[in-house]
Amino acid sequence: MKIGLISAMALAALMLSGGVRANEPKKGGVIRIVLTADIRSLDGSRTDSNTDTVLNHIYEPLVGFRADMTVGPMLAESWNVSGDGKIYTFAFKKGTTYHNGDKVLAADFKWLWERRMASRGTDAPWLCVPTFDGSRGLKVEAVEAPDADTLVFKLNAPNTLFLVRLADPVCNIWVASPKNVGADGKWIDGSAIGSGPFRLREWKKEQYISLARYDGYLATGGEKNGQAGDRTVYVDEARFTIVPDKTAAETALFAGQVDVVSTIQPSRVEDLKSKGAKIISSPGLSMTAILMQNLDPLLSNVKMRQAIAHALDFQQIAAAQTAGMAEFNPSGVPQSSAYFNESFLQWPKYDPARTKALLAEAGYKGQPIKLQTNKRYIGMYDNAIVIQAMLSAAGINVELEVLDWSAQLDNFMTGKFQMQSFGYSSRPDPLVIYGMFTGDKSKTPNYQWGDPKALELYLKAIDTVGLKEKQAALQDLHKLMAQQVPILGLYYFPVIEAISEKLVGYDTWALDKPRAWGVWKKS
After folding, report:
1. Distances in Å between the alpha carbon of 167 and those of 175, 311, 353, 443, 444?
2. Which H/E stretch holds residue 42?
3. How many CA atoms lie within 13 A of 418 on its CB side?
4. Please, what is the angle between helix 302-310 and helix 467-484, to 10°?
5. pLDDT per position as a tens digit, 150-194
6. Which helix (H) or strand (E) segment is 319 a member of?
7. Integer Cα distance of 235 and 82 in angstroms
8. DSSP string, 107-153
9. For residue 16, is pLDDT > 50?
């Protein structure tokens, strides 16, 4: 009895002293993360949220967002800005290598940057060319690599959003080995030689993407913090499993076949909890919206767009579709933003009588309007059903067009739609959010708001310094949007994930990007 008691006390003392730690990181095992759709490319030429998530495990971005949406170091461990604000000099982590063992060079980043900037007019233009070519104010005049570990960006003028743009996951601004490209100048099929914490093991299309821990990865200092900070990997493998059906994904979670199911619908939370699921959540930055093609013969009439806005009870839509976890917000300024105030909620009010009057003024004769949606992202489909019902009740003939997600996304990119139920990827800054849908439609068809005055106000807001001054500029932009109604913002979707009880160190965050680093599994 005494010996047993002494042994138990000794073991407890050992655990308290740190000799044995129950929560100490353990290497090994597989983390299985559900994706609703397959990735679209390995080179970032065709992307969506799923693709961005996977590629940012394989490749190391230059900089990344911390949990508080400030910009932190990644491949670049530090940087400085010239006095005139036009030259940014980045210092790479020394000793960084690719998955094939080659040293990462600043010249490699310059090569990939120039390759992407030259892609306009090809069958796969880089989505972020307009962000950096001066079309929207910010222009990178040159990228230089004076030595192996130094990268220099030269801008035409100071820009308060430059680092934010570099960190934006949708742009996939990372370094990749030139050996990914063959002698013909084309990216080699199946090649993904990066310097990130995981390397590509296998991509079995429409089934899974298997990534193996890269033991040669050079971690950034500090703690795990959003995308930035320590990205040390403990699991042997991160497997991104394609499960388009949410019910099937939830069933797989309870069966222990997957560990992370993201983008949980708020309406499912209570039921999942009752079945024993571990639910984690955070405020979101993903704008949920109904897009309207204002080049369409019918929807080019602002009175028609205003009539549609007055026919919708936006507060009811937001409350019902998020189970009260999010509120109506039509603007590009999330409620969590420092720039937000009640003025950004001003919008055409629910008023069926006003809708009827505006329809008459617009000369509407019951012409059908096709509203595109998909069933891969069930929230988009549910929103489309509600919108169709409300508009039909107001005398607007709306027909649902249910497409495969990839087909809907292609239509979005080319502007081939009348209306779409859509959800933008999470963005950390109001100007980046407005920038997703404001710009020259003749050059970039996926922009929703091509009015010259809107672009002028947007560029003014970018150049404005100071919180109150920038807030005022954003208010001017929103006032014009409320008048022209180029897009119908609904709400910012909360980030909700269901995870396995076996995971340790996994957390969710506002950008809604699953992260397989810094996570291990209980024995």
Report:
1. 13, 38, 46, 24, 21
2. none
3. 17
4. 100
5. 999 999 999 888 999 999 888 999 999 999 999 999 999 999 999
6. helix 314-321
7. 41
8. HHHHHHHHHHHT-TTSSS--TTHHHHBSTTS-BEEEEEEEETTEEEE
9. no
